[in-house]
Specification:
about 230 residues, mainly alpha, globular
C-alpha cells in the first residue's frame, strides 16, 4: 500500500474536526427548539426545522471530510475499520475509539431522520436522544485526540460549545417550555401521505357527537298525508 501523508491532510483533519464540533453544537441546540415547538413571528417553527435539517447535513459532510482525511493520512495508522468499530486503531486507541462511537451515533440519528416517515414516532424520538450522547462523546474525543484542544483557542471552542449545549439542556428540562402534544417536527415539504402510512390521522379532529334529543320525539308525517314531500 502506498503511503500518503501531507501537512495539508493534517491541517484538514484539525480544521474540519472543530468545524464539525461547532456544527454538531448547533444541531443539538436547534433540535431542542424544534422538539419544544419554539417559534414566533420573526423565525417560525418551519424555518427552525429546516435550519436544523440543513445544518445537520452540513455537519455530516464536514464529519465525513474529517474522518476521510484522518484515515488516508498514513502518518497516523488509524485504519478504515476504525471508522465504525471502536478500539481498533493503532493510534490513540481510546481517543479514536470514542470518535468512532460518536460517528456511529450521529449516523444512527441521521439514518433515522431519513426514514422518519417509515418508522414510529416513538422509535424516531428514542434514536434522536443519541445526539446528546454523540455530542458528549465528541467533546471527549476532541480533548483526548485533538492537538489544538490543548491550546487557548481550542479550549475556548470546546468550552463554548459545551456551555451552549448544557444551557440548551437546562432550558429544556428545567424551564419546561410548552410543547404541542402529539406533533412531530415533520416538514411541510414531507409527503402528504406520511401520516396515513404510519396509521395516524391526517388531522386531529374531535369526534362527531350527535346533538342531544329532547323529551319529545321529532314530529312524523303520515304516509298518506298530502303535505309529505312538500317544501
Amino acid at each position: 500500500m502506498i503511503a500518503l501523508t501531507s501537512p495539508y491532510l493534517w491541517y484538514t483533519t484539525r480544521a474540519t474536526g472543530f468545524v464539525a464540533l461547532i456544527l454538531l453544537t448547533l444541531v443539538v441546540a436547534l433540535g431542542t427548539f424544534v422538539a419544544t415547538r419554539v417559534g414566533g413571528t420573526l423565525v417560525g417553527r418551519f424555518e427552525l426545522n429546516e435550519l436544523h435539517r440543513s445544518v445537520s447535513i452540513i455537519a455530516v459532510v464536514f464529519l465525513a471530510i474529517h474522518i476521510t482525511s484522518t484515515v488516508i493520512d498514513s502518518y497516523v495508522p488509524t485504519g478504515w475499520i476504525s471508522i465504525f468499530l471502536p478500539m481498533t486503531s493503532s493510534y490513540k486507541r481510546l481517543a479514536v475509539g470514542l470518535g468512532s462511537v460518536a460517528f456511529d451515533l450521529v449516523l444512527a440519528v441521521w439514518i433515522s431522520s431519513l426514514l422518519k416517515v417509515r418508522i414510529r414516532n416513538s422509535t424516531w424520538r428514542f434514536i434522536h436522544w443519541f445526539s446528546w450522547l454523540a455530542f458528549a462523546t465528541a467533546v471527549v474525543h476532541t480533548l483526548m485526540a485533538g492537538t489544538d484542544s490543548r491550546r487557548t483557542f481550542g479550549l475556548v471552542a470546546v468550552v463554548v460549545c459545551s456551555s451552549a449545549v448544557f444551557g440548551a439542556a437546562l432550558w429544556r428540562y428545567l424551564g419546561r417550555p410548552t410543547r404541542a402534544a402529539g406533533r412531530t417536527a415533520l416538514s411541510p415539504l414531507a409527503p402528504a401521505d406520511s401520516d396515513a402510512a404510519l396509521g395516524r390521522p391526517l388531522v386531529d379532529t374531535p369526534p362527531i357527537v350527535a346533538p342531544p334529543r329532547g323529551d319529545r320525539p321529532f314530529p312524523t308525517v303520515p304516509v298518506d298525508d298530502p303535505r309529505r314531500g312538500r317544501r
